[in-house]
Amino acid sequence: MTDNNASKKRKHASNDESAHWLYDDTPPPLTILNDLDYGTELLPMPPSSQQHSSFNLFPTSRDTALFAISRRRRQQRDRFNAQDREHMTNAFKQDTTIADRLIVPKIHPLLAAKLKRHQIDGVTFMWKQLVGYMHGCILAHTMGLGKTLQTITFITLLCTEIAKKNPVVPRYMMSNRILVLAPLTTISNWMNEFDKWIPQELVQVVGHTYNFADVVSSSSSYAKRAQYLKDWYLGGGVLFMSYEQYRILLTKDSPHQDEMKRYLQDPGPSLLVADEGHRLKSNTSVLALTVSKIRTPARICLTGSPVQNNLDEFYCLVNIVAPSLLPDTQSFIMFYRKPIENIFAESSPSDIYLAKKQLLKLKLLTSDILQRRGPEYLDNDLPAKNEYYIACRMTEDQFTGYLILLDHFRTTGESILISHVALRALCNHPAILRKILVDRNARSGISSQPPTEAGDMDAIVEDELTAFSDLASKMLLECLSNYFARISDIEDPHHSSKVMAIMEIAKGCKRLGEKLIIVSHSILCLDFLEKLLGSRTYQISRIDGTIPQPQRQDIIDNFNDSPNKDIMLLSARAGSLGVNITGASRIILCDSDWNPVHDEQSIGRIYRYGQVKPVFVYRLFQYSAIEDVLMSRKLHKRGLASRVVDNRYFKRQDMKDIQKYYANPVEKEDVPEECDDPVLNDLIKAEPRALISIHRPREVEDEEVIHEHELSPEDVKKAKEEALGMKKAYISDHFPLVASL
Questions:
Q1: Could you give all domains of the chain from N- to C-terminal order, each with its CATH number?
Q2: What is the pLDDT of residue 312?
Q3: Using CB atoms within 10 A of its CB, is residue 5 exposed (0-12), middle (13-18) or buried (19+)?
Q4: Considering the entire predicted model, what is its pTM?
């Protein structure tokens, strides 16, 4: 086909959905191929760039497809009378066809030159979902793949087309009011990235950037904040706001409440970007309910981890970008969450089969609105990432204290939160546990963390003092008083094998001239390490929740740029998001909590675009203790995430009995062999008795890919039919919303 002929075909495609499909490698819209209750100009279900070929809902033969198109159109023409067709033609109030809206405009050359192939795919995906199909989407690219840059590129592209008055842009997006909701820790990074990537000639086109944190202070009046939002609402541009600030503005009683709802909900923004969208967590939380009331259907959720602890989080994300696509909450729990979450390789064949069938249907339902890109994209572009699981041997003092704690918790029946915090502290160092209890008793009367439901261990906080009630801390301190008294010089690092390993790794990194990050979920652990390492001439930087947000980026920039800095101490929560520390190439994960994503996010601070050195990750845990069990538990949760978004299930024995988390530790005499990392070889030579084993993570041998052919043809057909029916119902629900905007 000559270029001229191709051009003619393209022009024809803009007025004919089927032709657009034939010449643009785009499957025909479902409204053409299927019996819907509406005409051909209504919303089709989009093709999925991630859809497995065996999952394809569209005919693979061109002749079959054309026949289907012809037959469906005859049926539709016979079914609708003139009045129905006129009503449906005006439903979207758009003067363009779907084919027109699917053609993505050219990206600005300065941005296009910086984008990787998967990032161009991401921008294209967002354009087709929000502009072409006029609903939301989930950009589920793993940490470090540049979701921020992709979003900035899409916003720049959208604003450029709005300025041109391009008719393909939905009218409800023409006001150019863009709201970016994000964790507070990421706002500064968003602002910096906007300044970095927006081409100078497009700054005015995109509009002013507003950081709501600039007017959130004790000296800022509520009226001033309202005026700030009004300026954005009337003038357009990009408004950055934390989730917490958004929730407070729309739920707190004030004279300006109606104004707040007008600016931030209805009509509100024309485009919503929810960074770290998994923060919404529960479909019934105040935050999720508040965000869901935003009027625009143009919603983008960014997340590296659509599933962290359970499928409720995934359900919430989908409900934000595509309300009513999935069934009601109770039905979802019964038919999807329970079968999929409870599946293990040790489960019965019938349970495994049911899980696979429901997983297939869930993937079919959501594949159109979710684009997944995994860590393999980073692996192809960056230097190698080397991960090591380092099992430490408890010292005699740690082992004795651990048995005392277990006996105490079995007797008193303390909450999971209290027992976990205490055991984790002892696994780090006895002095840290003592510090927690002494400081907590000195602050008698402070509010403690409320009890948390089993399975919602995300509530464990880094300020361990809030985990204990007055009574619990007093009883525990009395129980351990003799134990603490028997330990001479309790702050000596030799009382913890893990601390000795940290010291040796830090020494090896300094000798190689490589910067090191040490991550902990415990503020008091960071305090202990800062004092210990600081006494040994290391130049240390630190970021935790106590560091004011405006200061954090300066600390990061100084650490990245200064040749004199050796170590960054990072709290897992404060440093897990929006922090780029590619000046370091080695990272120690000191301890764990129940959510595997926090560890992955910490690793993502150094293993991301911009890293020029091989990365080394050291995961430390005490062998046969709570941390060892946590490691296995987190591997199961990573398996859950994989099978939902990456089509895998995990071989792990379920641990339903909470007492199994607190079994007595056992001894083991293995001594690790040499490995391919000089830093670890020096550690093995210096502290052989502190270690049980050092091993690399197993590859996909613990997982199995779910293939469609493992299901019967009848069940595959039924799953596709049910998924297709639910998509049709979603389409019919979606139309009235979009038509009213």
A1: 1-103 (no CATH), 120-323+369-380 (3.40.50.10810), 326-367+710-741 (no CATH), 381-392+494-701 (3.40.50.300), 396-486 (no CATH)
A2: 84
A3: exposed
A4: 0.76
